[in-house]
Specification:
Elements: H1 3-9, H2 19-27, H3 29-37, E1 50-52, E2 57-59, H4 62-70, H5 72-83, H6 88-94, H7 101-114
Antiparallel strand pairs: 1-2
Helix pairs in contact: 2-3
Pfam family, one: zf-C2H2_jaz
Family: Belongs to the ZNF593/BUD20 C2H2-type zinc-finger protein family.
Protein name: Zinc finger domain-protein
């Protein structure tokens, strides 16, 4: 199963923030502050004091946050963030669409005809 198929099967209550949103949180403290302001501290675990930026999750205690950071799901998420989100060009290329269809097609046809 691909990432897209897996995401559609998850329930909305377990949906995390997207990678591009988290990337914006990491680069801009203002962006992260805006996200945290949308949540009421009384409704969050641990009154909103323990937050993992990379996974966009709240934790009850500092120790549970430390244990989470040592775990495999956290490391996997950090690796995804290092790779970066997909761009529109990458998505189009994966779907077989290319922006520069003109000259490149002609070159490949010439090469195929020569061989």
């Amino acid at each position: 199963m691909g990432v897209i198929a897996k995401r559609t099967m998850t329930k909305t209550r377990r949906k995390l923030r997207d990678l591009d949103q988290i990337k914006a949180d990491l680069t801009s403290p203002r962006h992260l502050a805006q996200h945290k302001e949308t949540k009421a501290a009384e409704d969050l675990p641990g009154l909103g004091q323990h937050y993992c930026i990379e996974c966009a999750k709240w934790f009850e205690t500092e120790t549970s946050l430390v244990v989470h950071r040592k775990g495999k799901p956290h490391r996997r998420r950090v690796k995804q963030l290092r790779e970066g989100p997909y761009t529109h060009e990458e998505a189009n290329a994966a779907g077989g669409l290319r922006i520069d269809n003109g000259p490149e097609k002609a070159k490949t046809r010439e090469i195929e005809m020569m061989t």
